[in-house]
């Protein structure tokens, strides 16, 4: 089994972990219902994407 030759120092591990932070998703306004939705995603409110309904809305 492959085993690391040297211990990764706290400094090294911290430098790697500096890229691990999560960021809030960017939001765009749905042109159909004016609700915020993520870009390049089907609108969760009205189920529309690119001027047509792609996901049927229950109710
Ligand atoms: Zn919408």
Description:
- By secondary structure, the chain is of the alpha+beta class.
- Helix content is 14%, strand content 14%.
- The protein has one helix and four strands.
- The chain has one helix at residues 10-17, and strands at 28-29, 36-37, 48-49, 52-53.
- Strands 1-2 form a two-stranded antiparallel ribbon. Strands 3-4 form a two-stranded antiparallel sheet.
- The protein is elongated and about 55 Å long.
- Zinc ion binds at residues 30, 32-33, 35, 43, 45-46, 48.
Q: What is the count of DSSP helices, taking H or I runs of 4+ residues?
A: 1
Small-molecule binders: zinc ion
Structural class assignment: alpha+beta
* Strands, total number: 4
Instruction: Write down the overall mean pLDDT.
Output: 88
Low-confidence stretches: none
Dominant shape: elongated
Order of helical and strand elements? HEEEE
Rounded to an integer in angstroms, the radius of gyration calculated over CA atoms is 21 Å
How far the N terminus sits from the C terminus, by CA atoms, comes to 56 Å
- What's the helical proportion of residues? 10-25%
In which order are the strands of the major sheet placed?
A: 1-2
What characterizes the major β-sheet?
2 strands, antiparallel
Tell me the fraction of residues in β-strands, as a range: 5-15%
Write the layout of secondary structure elements.
Blueprint: H1 10-17, E1 28-29, E2 36-37, E3 48-49, E4 52-53
Antiparallel strand pairs: 1-2, 3-4
This protein binds zinc ion (ZN).
Output the keywords.
1 helix; 59 residues; 4 strands; 14% strand; alpha+beta; binds zinc ion
Summarize the structure.
The chain has 59 residues and is α+β, with helices and mostly antiparallel strands. The chain has one helix at residues 10-17; strands at 28-29, 36-37, 48-49, 52-53.
């Amino acid at each position: 089994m492959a085993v690391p030759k040297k211990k990764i120092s706290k400094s090294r591990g911290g430098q790697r972990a500096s890229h691990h932070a999560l960021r809030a998703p960017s939001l765009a306004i749905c042109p159909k219902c004016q609700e915020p939705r993520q870009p390049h995603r089907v609108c969760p409110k009205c189920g529309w994407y690119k001027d047509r309904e792609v996901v049927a809305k229950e109710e």
